[in-house]
Structure formats: C-alpha cells, structure tokens
Design goal:
- It contains twelve helices and twelve strands.
- By secondary structure, the protein is of the alpha/beta class.
- The chain folds into two domains: 213 residues, Isopropylmalate Dehydrogenase; 139 residues, Isopropylmalate Dehydrogenase.
- Strand 1, helix 1 and strand 2 form a beta-alpha-beta unit.
- It is globular and about 55 Å long.
- The structure holds 3-isopropylmalic acid and magnesium ion.
- The site of 3-isopropylmalic acid has 4 residues, from helix 4.
C-alpha cells in the first residue's frame, strides 16, 4: 500500500516527536512492503511567523490531498498574548473544521510497566482501558456569537454552545460502533440537569442507542464523571461527550496513564479516503512543551502511538498498528523511559533514542 501522509510538525517539541513518528512509520512500512509518501506543511506559530496566518490555505490543500495527517503540536509563549489577532490554536481548530474531523478518539490505556508512573494508587489504575470519543467540530469551540465587547468597566464576553441533532447522532454512532469492537459499553457524558444542549444530547444518545441493543448505554453528568474517573476508572469503556467536556475529561484521564507523553489521538470525519477508510488527523494529546523544546528529551511515544492509530483507522492496517503498539509495550517493559515517565535509578532516554528503541523492537 502507498501511504500518502501530510506532516504538520508545528511548534515546540512538535518537530522532534513527529520526526520519530515518521521514522517508525518508515521502518514499519519497509518491513511490511508499504511505501510512505510524505509531504509537510505549516500550522500554528511557525505558520504565523512565515505567512501571518495560523492555517495557510496551502496547508488545508495539502492535508485534503493526503490519506492521513500527522500533527505534532502547536503554540508557545511567543504567540500567546491574549490580545493577539492570530493565535496558533486557531490553526488547529481550523484544520479540524476544514477536514470535517468531528470525532476525536483518545484511548487511555495504563501499561502494566507504567503503573508506578501515575500519581494515583496502583490498585486504582491497574487495567484501565478506555476510549474517550470527543465531539470535535461543534459546541462552544465554534459557536457564534463568540467574542468580547465594550470598554472598562463594562467589558463583556460571550460564548455560545450550539449542537444539532445530526452532530450528536453521528458522534454517538461512532461511539457505539467503536464500543462493539471493545467491551460494548458507552457512557454518555453531559450536563443535562443544567444545559439545553445536554438535554438534547441525552435524548439523541438514547435514540441512537436503540439501534445498538447489544451495547449498554449509561448517562453520567460531567461533574460526577470527573470524580468517577479517578475513583473507579476501570468501570469505563467508551466515553462519548461534547467538545469542551471531552477536552477537560481527556486531560484528566491522561493522568491515569502517568503522563500526557504517552497518549495518542485520532480525529476522524465522514470522508472516506482512496483506501476505503476514513481520512484522519493523528496527534499526541500533549502540547508543544516550550520549556523542553529543542532539548531532545521529549517523549515521542504518544506520537508513535498516534501513527499506530493512523495505520488502523485510515489505512486498515491492523497487523502493522499492532506491531507498533507491541514494540512500544516491549520498550516499556524493557525498562526504557523518557524523562516524563522515569523513576529514580532508571536510565533516561532522549527523544531520538526512544525512537530507535521502538524501531529495533518492530517485528514482522
Ligand atoms: C486539545 C487541545 C486543544 C483543544 C487546544 C490547543 C485548542 O487542548 O487538543 O485537547 O482544546 O482542543
Ligand atoms: Mg485539550
């Protein structure tokens, strides 16, 4: 198979981690007889510096032409003045919207070898294996009106959280389909005791659930969910929720796994690529980590695992995806760690060395 991938390295540690992701993809492709055709484009702060825009038109064109997109991270202090007209994050939101990537899949798996890396007790996090399915192109992130107006002391700001039935239904369908390949349970998270959008969410969630009698559905309020996530996280299989709740809960859930440096994500839309699978954008859930950028110490595993998700969801290459995940698991059980997940007495690997360790552990 010919894998046509556009790489958006972005800012901060983005280029360092995507370099390792691409290395692993290429090594794997060679082993399995695939070819990788790479293209790169600017997104975020680096795009603002070069063109004045966070999402140059050329980037959208290149991403739309690819079967899948690999993204590092965007943002950094250089561009974070709240009064700035353009912000790197607009690039990220813009490309999600432009490609119609309405479902953000964030698997949270606690590796046995890393149980000690979590701040929570081992008996709480052992066996955690959940998939957060976050709605990605609706809600407060894109609702209008949005903005600030007025002068001191009468300044005001407004955000709007719209959701349509169609937006909720397609996200819930994706969640139910995914649950079928897992433990057949969907937890729909909302704030139906307060928000109108949440009441519609719950209604539609149950209508969709009726199409999946083999899958269990439960409703949990978002505040309660944030508590259960650290109390009994193993009770969750698939969590389906709206954009802002999903953003918050997925960072919380990330800490079950010890570090943001471990967690991959996939953003999928309706569009089917020429291989008959969904075009998607794959990125680590961590940010650009400006404090460690350029030092060669960032953990590339979240990006490498994102490449595994890409092989699975955009190319249907299950064996290849499994091979990457197994190689990562072996590197961890061999005691290899980057700084973010290292404990005392362990030899810490740099970004590139961790990439090498994974490449060396790829089997046929
Ligand atoms: C994420 C990030 C983004 C989001 C930011 C950088 C705009 O936090 O991917 O979770 O809120 O979606
Ligand atoms: Mg976030």
């Amino acid at each position: 198979m010919n894998l046509k991938i556009t790489v958006l390295a972005g800012d901060g540690i983005g280029p360092e981690v995507t370099t390792q992701g691409v290395r692993v993809l290429q090594a794997l492709a060679t082993k399995y007889g695939h070819t990788v055709k790479l293209d790169d484009a600017l997104l975020g702060g680096c795009a603002i510096d070069a063109t004045g825009e966070a999402l140059p038109a050329e980037t959208t064109v290149k991403c739309a032409a690819a079967d899948a997109v690999l993204l590092g991270a965007v943002g950094g202090p250089k561009w974070s003045d709240p009064r700035a007209k353009v912000r790197p994050e607009q690039g990220l939101l813009g490309i999600r919207k432009a490609l119609g990537l309405f479902a953000n899949l964030r698997p949270v798996k606690v590796y046995d070898a890393l149980i000690g890396a979590s701040t929570l007790k081992p008996e709480v996090v052992r066996g955690v294996d959940m998939l957060i399915v976050r709605e990605l192109t609706g809600g407060a992130y894109f609702g209008v009106p949005q903005g600030k107006s007025g002068e001191r002391p009468n300044r005001q700001a407004v955000d709007t959280t719209p959701y349509s039935e169609a937006e909720i239904a397609r996200l819930m369908r994706m969640a139910f389909e995914l649950a079928r390949g897992r433990r057949s349970k969907v937890t729909s998270v909302d704030k139906a005791n307060v928000l109108a959008t949440s009441r519609l969410w719950r209604e539609v969630a149950h209508e969709v659930a009726a199409e999946y009698p083999d899958v269990q559905i439960e409703d949990v309020l978002v505040d309660a969910c944030s508590m259960y996530l650290i109390r009994t996280p193993t009770s969750y299989d698939v969590i389906a929720t709206e954009n802002l709740f999903g953003d918050i809960l997925s960072d919380e859930a990330a800490m079950l796994a010890g570090s943001m440096g471990m967690l991959p994500s996939a953003s999928l839309g309706e569009y089917i690529n020429r291989h008959g699978f969904r075009r998607g954008l794959y990125e680590p859930i961590h940010g650009s980590a400006p404090d460690i950028a350029g030092k060669g110490i960032a953990n590339p595993l979240a990006t490498i695992l994102s490449c595994a998700l890409m092989l699975r969801w955009s190319f249907g290459l299950t064996a290849e995806a499994d091979a990457i995940e197994r190689a990562v698991e072996r590197a961890l059980s061999d005691g290899l760690r980057c700084k973010d997940i290292a404990s005392a007495g362990i030899t810490v690997l740099g970004t590139q060395e961790m990439g090498t360790a994974v490449v060396e552990r790829l089997e046929n």
